[in-house]
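Hi again,

Forgot to attach this to my earlier email, sorry! This is the prediction with zinc ion bound. I've pasted everything inline since the attachment limit keeps bouncing my files.
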Amino acid sequence: MTRKAHGAICHCGAAVITGDDNDRAALAATVDPRHLTRGGELLAVIDGRTIYELSSGRLYRRDRWMLRGPCRHPVLAEHRCQERIPDTWRLPPTPPTPPRQETAW
Ligand SMILES: [Zn+2]
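Structure tokens for the complex follow:
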């Protein structure tokens, strides 16, 4: 069983998510916390980055078979110090959800 992914600060000062990258023979993975678009995922692969999906609080490396289709979980790219992921690869940040308003009736 993999260790749960958790937020951390990289030695370069960037906010990252770290965790094991698989259930067996896992390696430590460090990823950028912003979710990628499908196009951003493919561009990250072309850039040579390892891609992960975040499922049930755990990171799973997306292999070439998994890359053939879109993922229903958040997709994250490997963090590289001083090599920022372009904003065009990332999903826009989710706006905060407004509080629910109670109806009077
Ligand atoms: Zn770093």
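The beta strands are 6-9, 15-20, 28-31, 51-55, 58-61, 75-77. Residues 38-46 form the longest helix (9 residues).

That should be everything now.

G.
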